[in-house]
Amino acid sequence: MRLEEFLEKDFVLHDLAARTKTEALSELAAPLGRKWLALDTAKAVTVLLERESLGSTGIGEGLAIPHGKMDALERIAIVAGRSGAGVDFDALDSKPCHIFFLVMAPEKVVGLHLRILAHISRLLADESFKNAFMNAQGQDGLWEFLKGY
Known about the structure:
Layout: E1 12-13, H1 21-35, H2 41-53, E2 58-60, E3 63-64, E4 67-69, E5 77-87, E6 97-105, H3 111-124, H4 127-135, H5 138-146
Parallel strand pairs: 1-5, 3-6, 4-6
Antiparallel strand pairs: 2-3, 5-6
């Protein structure tokens, strides 16, 4: 499994402007709405916030993997985002999040969705991956870096 199977260059956000969880989720969902015009991004944010109400997907160490499911999606999509300033995401360690991987899947998808979350979790456990993610230059550099995983 490779990230680029579910990630597109337009789904790579190298400099998030968001400062709050809701802003970050809106910014991360926006490329999906541009790709699939039938996708209601406000509803996507609601789905993501409902998932967050069960427990933060800010897993600590500056990392967040928000995820959810929507029937309106044609396929699983990943949006990668980076925030130099950090976002207050109610992370488990109460620290700001800098690296985001949004995973959205159609309702009917189960196993693949979980395998993608596990793959991303393994990548984020690697300090060299996190450092390279944060240091990649611009959208092009971050996209080129992520295509290798």
